[in-house]
Design goal:
By secondary structure, the protein is mainly α. It contains ten helices and no strands.
Length: about 240
């Protein structure tokens, strides 16, 4: 997917479920419910609020989502701590909502803070660490800082390829972003070689009609057009 229309999936909350709660449709055992502490009950409510806010973002209701994410973040920070995984998850989603509103510089600062905290507390291979780092690269590309973005995407790709394998869809997206950055840096030979290799894999893994495969073909056609125009200028 290109840098212009790349989508980052709204992450699901990572907080653990509260144990011993009745499932939907089951009779409520008041003895079990009464054993839930006030803190655990509040955490359960915050989890639900977080997930609801993710749905609001998908529907484009950014202002409402932002208010709820901020409320959940502040409460989680007080209840669980600044570096708790679920606290950081909410802060990350708050940043993604800001970016969806076009407030990309504010979002970048928060993505960076989430990345540093998550890396320190949960490890460089943690899902949230990688997603936050990926989004830092995405923002840098959006504001035209292609070389910086490229280095971060390469870093993320190396880790994710080790975790998921090179042909995992997420890694294909990251590698396509790397190729697209070479394109924006006018490194057309490098870019088209990467797109060509990607195309073969995407056609097998994703199919010829998948949006990533189609976008890959579009990039290749654009590069060929540019190279042809450049050649014509040299001849003239």
């Amino acid at each position: 997917m290109s840098l212009d229309d790349k989508e980052v999936a709204v992450g699901q909350d990572t907080a653990e479920e509260i144990p011993n709660l009745p499932r939907c449709g089951q009779p409520c055992d008041t003895r079990r419910v009464s054993q839930i502490s006030d803190k655990d009950y509040r955490i359960m409510i915050l989890n639900a609020m977080h997930e609801n806010s993710n749905s609001l973002v998908v529907r484009g209701e950014y202002e409402v989502a932002l208010d709820v994410f901020q409320e959940v973040y502040e409460e989680r920070r007080q209840l669980l701590g600044e570096d708790d995984h679920s606290t950081l998850s909410t802060r990350h989603q708050l940043a993604w909502t800001l970016m969806s509103q076009g407030r990309i510089h504010e979002a970048f600062v928060i993505f960076g803070d989430v990345y540093e905290r998550s890396k320190r507390c949960h490890g460089v291979c943690d899902e949230l660490t990688l997603v936050a780092r990926d989004n830092m690269a995405y923002v840098l590309a959006k504001i035209g800082r292609y070389a910086e973005s490229l280095e971060i995407y390469k870093e993320v790709y190396k880790i994710e390829a080790g975790l998921h394998g090179k042909n995992h869809q997420r890694n294909l997206i990251t590698k396509q972003s790397i190729a697209a950055l070479h394109f924006h840096l006018e490194q057309y030979d490098v870019a088209i070689d990467m797109f060509r290799c990607l195309l073969e894999t995407m056609q097998v893994v994703l199919g010829k009609d998948h949006e990533l495969t189609v976008k890959n073909v579009e990039f290749m056609e654009e590069i060929r057009k540019i190279k042809k125009e450049n050649h014509s200028c040299v001849v003239m």
